Amino acid sequence: MTRALKRFLIKESIRKINSEGNPFYSEVLLGKEESHHLKNVLRVNQSEKCLILDPKGNEFIGEVQSFRDDGQCEIRVLEKTSGSSPLAFKLTVAQAIPQNRKMDIIVEKAAELGVNALIPLITERTIVRLPKEKTEKVVERWQRIANQTVKQSRQRIIPEICDITNFRALWTDEKRFGEVIVLHPEPASVLLCESLFSSLRSDKELKKKFLFVIGPEGGFSGREIEFAKSKRTKIASLGEGLLKTDTAFVVAVGLFKLWSFQTNDG
């Protein structure tokens, strides 16, 4: 039985280089942390093959060339692996930070499900409040969790874990998203799946980038919902009943991925 190749992440995109009209790939350097994992944890030896994934989601088969004195590893890129074409629609989720380190699990699920970016969110009813001096280290830890999950899950999308943001600040740069949908279980809300299909029917070309906004366990305040509505934001629900915030994340992203696959095929 063939052993599955181990996967490692590199920080720069791999470019195809032309030499005398013949395409080939250059050698790349694996960072110190990934090199340590390759050499000392997984015991991958020189001349052995591995998989490398760049920030754009391109995966290649590589061969270990040498271990450098500075702690980095040289890998020769052999060929690009085949894979499914990327989905036309991209998803960012602004997720209110839940209690009891549930955000760690949400970060894992974001990586497993192929979310493009995750914005840790502070709302009026968010209980977790991190001191400013700790936020950078916490976000870095979440990014490490996302990176490790991508390597294990074989996803090609590496979620960007953004800086912690407050609710109203989401709309300071809303134009970068074609559609913003706040998930809130009010009686007048349309179902999320209906909202997605209506977005596609109204303007398929411009609404390639979606932002889902998911609140804390206590939900969004009335002021926050009114503010979102004043920005012409869609309000959608996930059906009857109340879901925990981490459950709502998985359901919403799962519906989006299913809708994306169906739309791609259509």
UniProtKB/TrEMBL annotation:
<dbReference type="InterPro" id="IPR046886">
    <property type="entry name" value="RsmE_MTase_dom"/>
</dbReference>
<dbReference type="GO" id="GO:0005737">
    <property type="term" value="C:cytoplasm"/>
</dbReference>
<dbReference type="InterPro" id="IPR029026">
    <property type="entry name" value="tRNA_m1G_MTases_N"/>
</dbReference>
<dbReference type="GO" id="GO:0070475">
    <property type="term" value="P:rRNA base methylation"/>
</dbReference>
<keyword id="KW-0698">rRNA processing</keyword>
<keyword id="KW-0808">Transferase</keyword>
<dbReference type="InterPro" id="IPR029028">
    <property type="entry name" value="Alpha/beta_knot_MTases"/>
</dbReference>
<feature type="domain" description="Ribosomal RNA small subunit methyltransferase E methyltransferase">
    <location>
        <begin position="87"/>
        <end position="256"/>
    </location>
</feature>
<comment type="function">
    <text>Specifically methylates the N3 position of the uracil ring of uridine 1498 (m3U1498) in 16S rRNA. Acts on the fully assembled 30S ribosomal subunit.</text>
</comment>
<comment type="similarity">
    <text>Belongs to the RNA methyltransferase RsmE family.</text>
</comment>
<protein>
    <recommendedName>
        <fullName>Ribosomal RNA small subunit methyltransferase E</fullName>
        <ecNumber>2.1.1.193</ecNumber>
    </recommendedName>
</protein>
<keyword id="KW-0489">Methyltransferase</keyword>
<dbReference type="Pfam" id="PF20260">
    <property type="entry name" value="PUA_4"/>
</dbReference>
<dbReference type="InterPro" id="IPR046887">
    <property type="entry name" value="RsmE_PUA-like"/>
</dbReference>
<dbReference type="InterPro" id="IPR015947">
    <property type="entry name" value="PUA-like_sf"/>
</dbReference>
<dbReference type="Pfam" id="PF04452">
    <property type="entry name" value="Methyltrans_RNA"/>
</dbReference>
<keyword id="KW-0949">S-adenosyl-L-methionine</keyword>
<dbReference type="GO" id="GO:0070042">
    <property type="term" value="F:rRNA (uridine-N3-)-methyltransferase activity"/>
</dbReference>
<feature type="domain" description="Ribosomal RNA small subunit methyltransferase E PUA-like">
    <location>
        <begin position="31"/>
        <end position="77"/>
    </location>
</feature>
<keyword id="KW-0963">Cytoplasm</keyword>
<dbReference type="InterPro" id="IPR006700">
    <property type="entry name" value="RsmE"/>
</dbReference>
